[in-house]
Amino acid sequence: MLHRKLLLPIVLAHLSTLACAAGEPWSEDFVPPPGPYSWVQLDTGEWLKGDIIAMYDENLYFDSDHFDRLNLDLDDIQRIHGRGVFVITFQDGGAVNGQLQLHGQQLLVSHADGKLEFGRQQLVSITPAVERERDRWSGEVSAGLNARQGNTDISEFDVTGSIRRRTPATRMTLDYRGNSNVTDGERITDSHRITFAVDRFTGRRLYWRPISAQYYRDEVQNIAHQATVDSGLGFHLADSDRVNWELQSGVGGNYLSHVSVAPGDPDNELTPVATFGSDLYVDLTSWMEWEFLVSMTFLEKDAGRYQHHIINTLSTDLIGGIDLDVSLIWDRTENPQADEDNTIPEQDDYRLVVSFAYEF
User: Fold this and answer.
1) Is the pTM of this model over 0.85?
2) Which CATH number applies to 135-359?
């Protein structure tokens, strides 16, 4: 009788454990139920329910039913059970439409003609066959303002804007930065920079930049208008859940006109140009990011010989999509053009900007 009393609780506890394991979404035996949602299992064993927005650059963009939009490193994903039809592209440039299943290193695509198996290392991108246009767009705007009146009157602003459209195969970026400072009625700085680029991805790391264009204006630097157009290649040097580092280079043409020039000097130049860029993004913590962006331009001597635009930013999450950004900006022209008074602008301009940014 005593043995029966001891045996009954043990059996009930064992049955309870099995029942919980079958129902808990973090157990190894969990099978995603039928329904409209996709399921993703992390390498920790945890499952997420929601919608697959896209996968590219070894990152899965996932709209979680509970956590909202997430950016997941593909290396942290063990299994994917996709719901609906997806377009899956591979390193050889081919593409397949069908239902998606990923388990470890095996990728299974089911479509009307049967099932196809691929290796995980062949995967380049995933996107829903019917993709929402709004999911392709993202952007950021920021503004910093400094005003002072009294013995010295200062009015200064710095405004930036960035918008991006991204698909698994292409990326379009449009950026603007403007800065103005008026002190005691005298304009100290007045610069405006607009950059535009289109990228086409041909593999996991290498991409082609068919066109990149930049417009720059800085009257204090004696630059009335400068337009650069080039074409080149880009490369993902590092791409992980904490570090993203891209390099770009290209060749093209540059047009430069001056506000004024010394007698006998040309007031505009049309020259060939070579460009080099580096975009480094590092997640220092879950709430702080470091950005180090470098843009270099190599020109003929009369057009300035060499220019760079370097932005070093520490961004801190505040609330919602609002960040506090502290940026150190360094602009340099190696051979600035003298104006009509034979005054040569300084080679270097430095700015420390504190601004609030909003991501959308």
Assistant:
1) no
2) 2.40.160.40
